[in-house]
Every structure is written in structure tokens, then in C-alpha cells.
Design goal:
heterodimer; A: mainly alpha; 2 domains; 5 helices; B: two-stranded antiparallel ribbon; 21 helices
Chain lengths: 133, 497
């Protein structure tokens, strides 16, 4: 992680910041001053951490895989929500999350799938008068 | 000096039925979520913030403060019943709470935790009410140079105290600052690091960053490691001798010095940005044990152990608001979340708050006192009830919480693009937590970033780019010296460790 942080800092310094900030030749604090300073600090801290202590964190592959799976499911659901809307996607998302978490009781799954989006819809759309996605 | 009329108007604003209902709702929510291991008041506050923008500012802030206060009481329940603290703040409570519960006195332990929590909380609220207005007057006399130096000083303290190591603490702060630079720069108003997304002209929304890093990352992490086995729980026996179920006045009064010590430790540590209530609870526990005539009783179920930890961790809540209301610097994550609630309502926290929003601030103080009384009443009635939620199915809780996060962020910004940004920050939060980088310091640095850059720009203009001109600003010079001293001291400490 420490080396990755240092590489990220260097990538920001030499590739991303020059491409994503405008060059200005007046004023005390230019648009790229603070991003450049923070990236130098990030790079230095990454190198400092790498030299001080060896990496000891070994994430469990199963947990990382499950984490990524949940993230992909949630991310995809939000992306799909932009096209199909909350009322279609929310029950599917709740059902999927419950199934992935190991919930197998049919009645419980059905109640969750219907009740959670319904309560949110009632609270936001009806009570607060705000539109849902 | 505060106008007495403003003070009275503010307090009278607080004591209305509407505010009482919102405080009550916050306290009940806080106690319930606090009792569920893994959720806690911070996540509940993060989820609730976007829903509060339809409320008036006082009701919204009072509701969130209620969640925070109630969460600290609720967090003690699983710590006492199953030796699994509902919140990190309650970890020290388990040291004596769980042994007392195993002796067949779980209700006595929970009631002592409740009384201690309310006592510590009230103590720190009184300190907050007393010192914040005079401190704000002092803060108002500070110019941009002094404010810039103060921010550097705050960053140095936070970096050393929160991070598991100094380079990790500084790196987390630098990453937070870097993310704060996304959007238009304050001096030239040119877009930076927006990758063609006009939605990022105003930078990353604080709500998306806070909810992503604090709530969504924790929800995803808990879903990934979910266990199908239930937690072993101590059931509350129906028939018990009265003295095993209650805490008598004599028992409470015998803990008065412990409670006072805990309140003082929590208040002092709470006023320093970044220390947090978990550290306060453990320090108070250690100090009480050291001062006790019976130190061998600690860890075996003594009421003094519970009183020490709960009074200290709860007294941090009020004290955290001292730097927030006087300087606009959040002392903890919950304070940072309160700032985002203020900002949703169009209010900028800082020393001007007492001048511009005096009525609201005194209303908030009134609501905090009301919340303490409500916390005690709800706790006395609900403690037995909340013990049932300790074993609530995690899959149901976290899937509902995730949906609430999505809806909450969408409501506050009106675009699903920001919801996707929230997931990116959730991923960043997971990675940072996995490798021991503090997300708390990241969020505080992110929040302070824009003000930091603005005050730096103003400072450079005032000093004409000449650092030697700092001699004309002795307060700033002193603060900067302290900041470098703190960083050097933590560097030496880290090398020794």
C-alpha cells in the first residue's frame, strides 16, 4: 500500500495534475499549487512508510471478493436506476443483497423486498414530497 | 457580548413540542442503532443528514445531536450483554459491564451506564455553554493569517493523534486536502481535476464523501464478513431481587468522584480535535483504577469501572462542539457530520455563528439539555426493549441501510452521479481502513481543505509572499511553532515505538 501510495502521488504530479489544471502565471497561489504540494506529501509519506515498516496487511481473498461483488451489485443498481427508476430497481437490490448475505427465509425475503422500498417511497415521495430517482 | 434577549429567544425556541419530538426521535433512533453492533450513531447520523434538510435548522440539528447522545447510551447495551461494544466508545464499558452482567446483574450494569452517560454528557454541555461564547469572541479577533496558522496547528494535532503512525496520519490528511482541491480554485476560479464532469465544479459534496467513507464502506465490509451464527446473549431474567436490578442513590453517590473525573477527562480531551471518545473512556478507566483503593476489583464488575468509562465517553460529545462552534474546526467525525448538516441548512460554522445565528446556537444549547433529560427518560423505559435488537438479522439491517444511503445522497444533491461518487469514496474508505489509514482525519482534512486554501491565499497576499513578515503576527507565529513542535514530537515518539 505504501508504494502504491507513492506511485499514485507521482502519477498525479507528472501526468494528471498538469493535464487537469490550468496554467496561470499571476497570483500567489496558482491552481496547481495545493494539489502539487499535497501530492508531494503523499509521495513522501508513501516512501517514508515503505522504508519504516514492512507491509503486514494480508486481506483475505474471500472477503475481498465478496466486498467487490457487493460493490459491483450496488454500483450497477445505481447505474440502472438512472434508466429504470427507484421503484423498479430498489426491490431487486434489496433482494439481491439479502440473498448474497445468506438470507434464505422466503417470507422474510418477500417482506424485506416489498417493505423497505415501500417505506422509503412513502417517507420520501409522499411525506417529504421529494422525487425519487 | 451576547444579547440576553437573543439568549432567551434561543432557549425558548428549543423548548417547543416540535423540537421535543425531534429530540425524542433522535434519542430513540440513537439508542436503537447504538445497540446494534456495527451500525452506531455515526452511521445513523450520516444516513439521516440528507433527510433533515426539510426540517428547520434547530429541529434538524437537535435531531442529529439526539442520535449522537442516544447512540452512546445504546452502545453500552451489547457491550454489557454480549461483550461486543455497539460502538467503539463502549469498548471500555465491557471491561466491567460484562462481568457484572455475568454475575446476574445486567440491568444494574445498564442503568449505571445510563446514569453515568447522562451525568458526563450534562457536565460537558454546561462547560460548552459556559466557554464557547467567550472563546468565539477571542476567535473573532483573529485574522486570516492567524486562522491559517490555527488550521496548520489543528492539522498537526489531528495527524499525530488519529493515525496509527505519523506518515499514515499525514498521508490521510494530504489525501483529504487533495480531494478538497477538486473543483474551482478559490483565487482564479479555474476548474481543477474535474475530468470533464461539470457536476464537480463545486467539488465533491461533503455528504457523499462522509456517507461513502463512514456508512457505505462499513455496510459493505459488514456484509462481506457477515456471520450466519447468532451472537451469544445474556437474557434478562424476569425474577430478580430489586437491588440487583437498580442502582440506588447511595451507589450512584459513591461514584461521584469517578463521574467527575470521567467528565473532566472527557471534556478536556473532547475539546482537542481528533482525540475521540474511545481514548477518553480508556484514559478515564485507567485513571480511576489508579486512584482506587481497590484496584483489583476492576475488571470484575465494579460500578466505578462503568461510571468511569461511560461518563468520559459521553462528555466528549458536548466538548467536541467547542472547536466546531468557536473556530469551525470539527473535533470528531460526528462533529464533521454536524457541520454538513449546518451547511445543508445554509449555515457556515465558525466564530461568526454566535453573531449571525446566536438564536439558533442558544436554541441548540437548550435542545442539548433537553436531550439529556430525554436520554435518561427513554433509557429508563427502553433499556429492556433495546436488548432485543442486539440480535437483529444483519442482512436485513445493512441492505435497508444501503438503500437509505443511496436515497439520502440523491435527495441532498438531486443527481445519481453523486451517488456513484459516494461509492467511489466507499471503496477508498475500505482500502484506507484495511491498511490502517485514518478515514476520520481524511474527512476532517477534506472539510477544512477549501477554507485552508482560501486562508493560505489571503495570508500570502497579506504577507506579500514574505514569510519573515510573520513576525508582525505573533499569535500566528506561536501557533506555527507549536504545530512544528507537535509534528517533531510525534516523529520522535513514533521512532522510539
Amino acid at each position: 500500500m505504501a508504494l502504491a501510495l507513492a506511485i499514485f502521488g507521482l502519477l498525479m504530479l507528472f501526468v494528471i495534475i498538469p493535464a487537469q489544471t490550468e496554467a496561470v502565471d499571476y497570483g500567489w497561489l496558482r491552481p496547481d499549487t495545493l494539489p502539487v504540494v499535497t501530492c508531494w506529501v503523499v509521495t513522501a509519506c508513501g516512501l517514508w512508510q515503505a522504508t519504516l515498516t514492512p507491509a503486514q496487511v494480508r486481506p483475505r481473498a474471500r472477503v475481498v471478493a465478496r466486498l467487490l461483488l457487493y460493490l459491483i451489485v450496488a454500483f450497477s443498481a445505481v447505474w440502472a436506476m438512472t434508466r429504470l427508476g427507484f421503484l423498479v430497481l430498489a426491490p431487486i437490490l434489496v433482494l439481491l443483497l439479502n440473498l448474497l448475505a445468506g438470507e434464505r427465509r422466503v417470507a422474510w425475503l418477500a417482506a424485506q423486498t416489498v417493505c423497505v422500498p415501500l417505506v422509503i417511497w412513502l417517507l420520501v415521495d409522499v411525506l417529504l414530497g421529494r422525487p425519487l430517482p | 457580548m451576547t444579547d440576553p434577549g437573543t439568549l432567551l429567544l434561543g432557549i425558548s425556541d428549543a423548548f417547543t413540542l416540535t423540537n421535543l419530538l425531534f429530540v425524542l426521535a433522535g434519542i430513540v433512533t440513537g439508542q436503537v442503532v447504538g445497540a446494534i453492533p456495527g451500525i452506531g450513531p455515526v452511521m445513523a447520523m450520516a444516513i439521516a443528514i440528507p433527510f433533515t434538510f426539510v426540517l428547520n435548522p434547530l429541529a434538524a440539528i437537535a435531531f442529529l445531536v439526539g442520535i449522537n447522545k442516544g447512540g452512546l447510551v445504546g452502545g453500552a447495551i451489547p457491550a454489557i450483554l454480549i461483550n461486543v461494544p455497539g460502538t467503539p466508545d463502549a469498548a471500555a464499558t465491557a471491561l466491567d459491564g460484562y462481568p457484572l452482567a455475568r454475575q446476574g446483574k445486567p440491568q444494574k450494569a445498564m442503568k449505571m451506564a445510563l446514569y453515568s452517560s447522562v451525568t458526563g454528557d450534562t457536565f460537558s454541555d454546561v462547560v460548552l455553554i459556559t466557554v464557547s461564547a467567550p472563546l468565539a469572541i477571542v476567535a473573532l479577533k483573529m485574522g486570516p493569517v492567524e486562522i491559517f496558522a490555527l488550521m496548520v496547528f489543528a492539522f498537526s494535532i489531528i495527524a499525530g493523534l488519529i493515525g496509527s503512525s505519523l506518515p499514515k496520519g499525514i498521508a490521510a490528511g494530504a489525501l483529504g486536502l487533495l480531494c478538497a482541491t477538486v473543483g474551482l480554485d478559490p483565487e482564479h476560479s479555474t476548474p481543477r481535476l474535474i475530468f470533464g464532469h461539470f457536476e464537480l465544479y463545486d467539488g465533491f459534496p461533503l455528504v457523499a464523501v462522509a456517507i461513502g467513507m463512514l456508512a457505505v464502506s462499513e455496510i459493505l465490509r459488514r456484509l462481506a464478513v457477515i456471520s450466519r451464527q447468532g451472537l451469544p446473549v445474556i437474557h434478562l431474567p424476569e425474577e430478580q431481587p430489586r437491588e440487583d436490578r437498580r442502582v440506588g442513590w447511595r451507589e450512584y453517590w459513591s461514584c461521584r468522584y469517578t463521574l467527575l473525573r470521567g467528565g473532566c477527562i472527557g471534556t478536556v480531551l473532547g475539546a482537542i480535535p481528533g482525540v475521540g471518545s474511545t481514548a477518553a473512556a480508556f484514559i478515564s478507566y485507567a485513571a480511576t483504577r489508579h486512584a482506587s483503593r481497590e484496584p483489583d476489583q476492576f475488571g470484575k464488575g465494579t460500578l466505578h469501572g462503568i461510571a468511569a468509562t461511560e461518563s468520559a465517553n459521553s462528555s466528549v460529545v458536548g466538548a467536541n462542539l467547542i472547536p466546531l462552534l468557536t473556530l469551525g474546526i470539527p473535533g470528531s467525525v460526528s462533529a464533521a457530520l454536524l457541520i454538513s448538516a449546518f451547511m445543508i441548512q445554509g449555515i457556515q460554522p465558525g466564530p461568526l455563528l454566535f453573531e449571525e445565528q446566536g438564536r439558533l446556537i442558544y436554541g441548540l444549547f437548550g435542545a442539548m439539555i433537553m436531550a439529556n433529560i430525554t436520554n435518561l427518560a427513554v433509557g429508563l423505559i427502553g433499556l429492556r426493549l433495546w436488548t432485543r435488537v442486539v440480535r437483529a438479522p444483519e442482512a436485513s439491517i445493512f441492505s435497508a441501510a444501503l438503500l437509505l444511503c443511496i436515497v439520502g445522497v440523491y435527495l441532498s444533491t438531486g443527481t445519481l452521479f453523486v451517488v456513484l461518487v459516494m461509492f467511489c469514496f466507499a471503496l477508498l474508505g475500505i482500502v484506507m481502513q484495511a491498511f490502517g489509514y485514518s478515514t476520520v482525519i481524511f474527512i476532517i482534512a477534506f472539510f477544512l481543505g477549501q477554507r485552508f486554501e482560501l486562508s493560505l491565499s489571503q495570508t500570502l497576499v497579506i504577507l506579500d509572499g514574505n514569510p519573515a513578515a510573520l513576525v508582525n503576527h505573533p499569535v500566528a507565529l506561536l501557533l506555527l511553532t507549536f504545530a512544528f513542535g507537535v509534528i517533531a514530537w510525534y516523529g520522535v515518539q513514533g521512532r522510539r515505538e
